[in-house]
Amino acid sequence: MPAIVSILHRISGAVLFLALPFLLWMFDLSLISEGTFERLAMLASSWFVKLVLLVLIWGFLHHLVAGIRYLVLDLHVGHDLPQARGSALAVFAISLPLTLVAALKLFGAF
Fold first, then answer.
1. How many folded domains does the chain comprise?
2. Is the overall model pTM greater than 0.85, yes or no?
3. pLDDT above 70 coverage of the chain, percent
4. Max CA-CA distance within the chain?
């Protein structure tokens, strides 16, 4: 489990890094005028774009929670295998429900 968290931490970091120019470009477009904001809002209402945004949200949340785990590991806490497995499971136990809440909000459940 710790290895899976480690690999996903690296993948999510790479995806977020590669998506950053696109996200900044979209943010810049949204600030240009009301018309470009409306076009981006219309584009963001499609299910495919929402799915891409959800993947980015998961990547951010997983990277954040796993990063906190690695900061704690850098303090030499939880290096034993049972503790490392528990903290790896905690990463999923925290990041996945947060992603579910974000998905419900993104797809309009509340």
1. 1
2. yes
3. 100
4. 56
